[in-house]
Specification:
The protein contains nine helices and no strands. The chain is mostly helical. It is globular and about 50 Å long. The two termini are about 25 Å apart.
Length: about 180
């Protein structure tokens, strides 16, 4: 099985399938997907460490719903401008931290287009793939990864028929997963 080819094909399905999503669907899916990322180890601490912003989950969700994400975008831009990768004190973020930072940037971006939503979905796959590759239980993570791809395909089917999405689908889906082991 060529996993790279499968992921490329799945990404293309996401791109095609999310093109027809409404702005409301994109917002509700973004909020739902954040339920996955909030379960990653030290989500809020990572954001504070790299963006110097204390995140309150309820406020973030409300801001995404209402399109009030400018203060988050400004904090991200400021933190990027202040990073000096050539400084002796620079420490590259660990992979899980990078997944969190990318997800936060995507979730607080303009929802006019589906591009950032595709990145959020692919980020889940990348996170699970990372867990599979660096865990002592790769079969467990591989199963979650396969189930996630199928789940995302089901989401695409629901987008196509115009369904709305429960904001807790990802939080509930991954409630029992121990990401701390990786």
């Amino acid at each position: 099985m060529d996993i790279v080819k499968q992921i490329d094909q799945h990404t293309n399905r996401l791109i095609d399938g999310l093109l027809s999503s409404s702005a409301e669907q994109r917002k509700s899916l973004t909020i739902a997907i954040l339920g996955f990322y909030f379960q990653l180890p030290n989500f809020e601490a990572v954001l504070y460490q790299y963006i110097q912003m204390r995140i309150k989950k309820k406020q973030l969700i409300a801001d995404i719903k209402n399109g009030n994400v400018q203060n988050y975008r400004q904090a991200i831009e400021k933190s990027i401008a202040n990073v000096d990768v050539y400084a002796d004190s620079y420490e590259e973020p660990k992979p899980i931290a990078l997944f969190i930072l990318d997800a936060f940037a995507g979730a607080t971006s303009d929802m006019k287009f589906s591009t950032n939503l595709v990145k959020l979905f692919v980020g889940i796959i990348d996170t699970l793939d990372y867990c599979e590759n660096f865990s002592e239980r790769p079969a467990y993570w591989n199963k979650l990864l396969e189930e996630e791809v199928e789940f995302q395909n089901e989401v695409l089917r629901q987008v196509k028929i115009g369904s709305s999405f429960n904001s807790l689908i990802y939080q509930q889906r991954y409630a029992g997963v121990a990401f701390q082991e990786v």
